[in-house]
Amino acid sequence: MHLLHDPAAPPAPEISFDQFLAVDIRIGRIVSAELFPEARKPAYKIVIDFGPTIGEKKSSVQITENYALEDLPGRLVAAVVNFPPRQIGKFMSQVLTLGFPDDAGAVILFVPDKDVPVGGRLF
């Protein structure tokens, strides 16, 4: 298991509140999802709507173990929207969709437990 996914890993080094505020985590709604057969590990390509200020962004997500492709559109997800885009094969991932590992290390999406407006920022 990767150190970042290990529940027994020690906490990361302490950061300042200003460093935390520099990470822009927003809520968005998945508008479309498709298979990403070219990915090294099983993944989907998704498009997330973050509202009028940020708009729609693309992301590659390794969530195939816990989520069926047809169940993704309409779901809320949290993502870091201010990292630089990352090239994954021929696909440019524009945001980092957030999740936590389950007992087997597969990703469970990080989502609010109630409906919230898209574009809202984590605080």
Keywords:
5-stranded antiparallel sheet; globular; 34% strand; OB fold (Dihydrolipoamide Acetyltransferase, E2P); mainly beta; 123 residues
The SSE order reads HEEEEEEEEE
What's the architecture in CATH terms? Beta Barrel
Main β-sheet, spatial strand arrangement? 3-2-1-4-7
Mean pLDDT: 93
Percent of residues in helical segments? under 10%
For the record, what CATH class applies? Mainly Beta
Please give the largest β-sheet: 5 strands, antiparallel
Could you state the oligomeric state of the chains shown? Answer: single chain
CATH superfamily: Nucleic acid-binding proteins
Tally of discrete structural domains = 1
How would you sum up this structure, described in words?
The chain has one helix and nine strands. It has one helix spanning 17-22, and strands at 25-35, 44-49, 56-61, 76-80, 86-88, 91-93, 96-97, 99-101, 107-109. The longest helix is centred in the N-terminal third of the chain and has 6 residues, at 17-22.
In brief:
By secondary structure, the chain is mainly beta. It has a single domain (17-109), classed as OB fold (Dihydrolipoamide Acetyltransferase, E2P) (Beta Barrel). It is built from one helix and nine strands, in the order H-E-E-E-E-E-E-E-E-E.
Fold blueprint:
Layout: H1 17-22, E1 25-35, E2 44-49, E3 56-61, E4 76-80, E5 86-88, E6 91-93, E7 96-97, E8 99-101, E9 107-109
